[in-house]
Fold these 4 entries.
Entry 1:
Amino acid sequence: MNYFPLLMNLDYKKVVIVGGGHVARQKAEALLPTKAQVIVISPTVTEKLQQYIQEGHLTWKEKSFEPADLDDAALIFAVTNDEEVNNAVEEAVQHWQLLSRADAKGRVDFINPAVVRRGEFVLTVSTSGASPGLTRKVKSDLADQYGEQYAMYVSFLKKARQRILKKYTGDEKKQLLAEILDPKVLEWMEQGDVQKCEAWLQQRIGEEQ
């Protein structure tokens, strides 16, 4: 299967997770950084899911699955350990809705990659289901290589880019956009010296300090 990779905006969209076990928890946790309206359909849920529900991150419908549960859902996860229930979910899915079945049987419109998040910096890894072990290993390697400082670093780059685009055009703009990727800026960020990064940027783009 040749999957098409993309990052999807799920803000304020309905996402339904049918199931309340370990896999359902994983899917819910992957959705927590978004502003999606996440609804869990299951007679029971894990303790961790219960915590997310109590904290207001998820909505739980303590019941068995019914086709109407999928009304207006953009994404649907069928993640129960009951093939009949997963089949029922698939049968109820509309042609425009996207379905992921954890048992990889029947219709599978998408799969979730492993994700390393550093603020707006998002790294994803997938072997398209061929080797989950390798996916976990590469994710771990990336998490070590790109530490938490990258959240602040990317935030700085974003703001620097906006200031450059506002003031410069043409070759000068291109040159400055390349210069803000100078390795020493990342080094200062790793040291927590944001002020040095800001002073350097102001000097480079001709802003008064």
Note: The two ends are 54 Å apart (CA to CA).
Entry 2:
Amino acid sequence: MIRLERAPLPPDTAAHLTTYTEQIEQTAEADRKTGAADLWAHTTVRRRVRDGLLATLADMAPGHQRCMYCGDSQGTDIDHFEPKSLAPLRTFEWLNHLLACAYCNSNQKRNTFPRSEEGEAPSFSIPRSRSLWSTCGWSCRQARTKD
């Protein structure tokens, strides 16, 4: 198992993440999911946070910019480990971002997230190891061979 240590974000990226989280917090609770998704998709917002997030995540990844789920493919996507649709307040939280390949992010994980039996709390904290698929009960390599 390869441990990943969270690297510090560039100060301007961290400041933008905090500002956007505060904007979501000020949104009515019923509108937070849509508000968070719209804010994440906004061109100006993406321009302010994407490069800093991708560069820092790439530096943390095992190997050269490897997907933090499968480790096989190049990580090109910023994944929200706890999906925006389930936790809009975590949309811009640094500890909720991982580097993923497009296949793992779009085809395997999507909006899934392990929850306790009560359905409230995560069943574990955000993993910092390369074996995320086995921790979450997903199998990227098996899924790829079935295509």
Note: The first strand starts at residue 77 and ends at 80.
Entry 3:
Amino acid sequence: MSRALELFMEKASVREEVREAVRELAERPLKEILAYMIRGEVDSTGLYKFLYEKLPDGYPKERFKKFFEMERSHDLEVSRLFRTLFPGEGVPDVRLKSWARVFWERDYRLGTVGDYLKVLQIGMDAEQLSEMVYKMLAELLENPEHKKLMESLAEDEREHYEFLKAEYDFYSKIERQKALKELIDEIKKEDG
């Protein structure tokens, strides 16, 4: 892994789990990195589809629909690149952690703001991982068109992360205010 990517991870306050996944991917051959990203894009498509379909009114459903469509196009772009670089070869199964699969494998429900925050955290981790891996791929690939594609995908993932983080920060504040109110009400009961 390049020093530039290491510095980016430090500066971006990337969680250790995500850093470890990037380090592990950096040791893999290009074919496996691309295969992982194809799976990651399919997972992200599922995440945004889930949010679009399951969120109640009042949440940014249309934004998640846009992200769902973008991630689906990312999947197609990365798959096309894989076929270009490895014609006639199948996409290998790469066994690394998948953030987005966690919630739909358990029939996850969005019943509370806390549930929404958990899904947002999964999405933020997945988007940071994707951004870093696309940056790594941009460094590895020699073809200028392929580099440009990876840089563009990294920018998209950064945009998704920034939106998810803003949502997370906003709803975290609401959760903290709710918890504080409950604590104050509890103290008043005890004193009363």
Note: The mean pLDDT is 82.
Entry 4:
Amino acid sequence: MNTNTSITTAEIDRWRAGLLDAEQSRVVQEALRSNESLAAEAQFGARLAAGLAPLPQLAARRTQAKQARRLRWPRVMAAGFVTASLAIFTLAALPLLSSHTQTPLQPIMLNAQTADAVQHMDFYEWLATHPQAMQDARHANPA
């Protein structure tokens, strides 16, 4: 039983890839049969390679999905531009549309009593602060 442990991980990888000549390949195979840790290391590489095998298929699907996604972006951009232009048009048109619906302010015509009250506002303020004078004015004799 040969316990040659001079085989490195790089040599195991080259053996697995088929890059070693016949003599070196035979030496690596004998080392793998005689040393369980090397065999486990070689099995780990085989399991890793088997686990990574579906990656090219996944990458191909992702590439196809990216192409489909690329075709969708112009439609999304166009919809965004349409929405933005409608929003800008609405905001710009609201002041124009609302100015036509309002009636212009008409000057308020005051009747004669209101005009008299406004002209004599100081008297009415004084009268409100002196309630006794107000009562006298109501009950006064027109003498």
Note: The two ends are 150 Å apart (CA to CA).
